[in-house]
Design brief:
Blueprint (H helix, E strand, L loop, with lengths): L3 H12 L3 H8 L3 H8 L6 H10 L2 H12 L7 H20 L11
Length: 105
């Protein structure tokens, strides 16, 4: 599976957003984001905050990157991504919205 760290930052870059904006949206300190980007560890709770803090455009990129990657990763990596997606969908339903996943023509 595509490296989960790489997927977050690739989505962030493709959307044209900054780590500063992600920090503000997610509540994860910019220094933690920087360390994570450079290969440092991050807790699952903070990783989840980063993913959920992505803008809708960046989140769409992220989901597409994960969904279209080869399944070379561990089952726990895949399970974590499914949990994140389920939580995002649950939040969207509570707000009366549909989470954007992929293209909706």
């Amino acid at each position: 599976m595509r490296n989960l760290r790489k997927a977050v930052f690739e989505a962030l870059n493709l959307s044209g957003e900054t780590a500063k904006k992600l920090s503000e949206a997610s509540g994860v300190d910019q220094s933690q984001i920087s360390r994570f980007r450079k290969g440092g560890d991050i807790s699952f709770a903070n990783y989840q905050k980063l993913v959920l803090g992505l803008s809708p455009v960046a989140y769409d990129y992220f989901i597409n990157l994960i969904a279209t990657s080869k399944t070379e990763g561990s089952n726990s990596d895949i399970a974590e991504q499914l949990i994140l997606l389920a939580e995002k969908l649950k939040e969207s339903r509570k707000r009366g919205e549909l989470a954007k996943v992929g293209n909706t023509n």
